[in-house]
Amino acid sequence: MIRKCDDDDFDAIYTVINDSAKAYKGAIPPDRYNEPYMSREKLKHEIDDKIVFYSYEDADGLAGVMGIQRFEEVSLIRHAYVRTAKQNQGIGSELLAFLKGGTESSLLVGTWAAATWAIRFYEKHGFTLVTAAEKDRLLKKYWTIPDRQIETSVVLALWRGLPSQAVAHGPQNDSRQGV
Description:
The chain has a single domain, classed as Aminopeptidase (3-Layer(aba) Sandwich), CATH 3.40.630. The chain is about 35% helix and about 25% strand.
C-alpha cells in the first residue's frame, strides 16, 4: 500500500533512510558520507521545507519512502529509499510511478554520481542525465548543497512539456535544500 506519511511516521522514515543509505558507504566520497546518513534534525528540516513523503507499506511496516517537493515549474523527487531487506522487489518502482502519476510537471532528481545503481534505476523509469553545465545550474537553483556535493552529484530529468533550458534559467527559488 502506498500512502502519504504523517507525523507518526517520522521514526520509520528516519529508519528506512538510514538503513538504505548504508549502500553509499564506500561508494560516495568519504567526506560526503555521515553516520547516521541523515540526522533527525535534517529530516525534520526537510519536512518543514515542504518535502512530502510517501511510503510503501507491507505486512512488516514501512518498506520504502520517497519524497516530492513541488515548485511552480518542476517537482523534485527527494530521498528515495527502500529498506535493504526489501530492495529489488519493485517497491521503489511503485513509489516512483505513484509520484510520477501525481504531477504533470517535469521531474528532477539529484543523486550521487557514484551511485550508479540509482542512476540506472531512474534511467529505467524514463529519466535522462542532464549535461554537466545544466546539472550545476539546476542544483544551485533547486537545492542548497555545498560545492563539493555539486561536484560529486548528477541530476536526472523527466521533462514534460517544458524545455530544460527554460527550467535551468528560470527565476531563483529561495526554498532549496540538499540532495
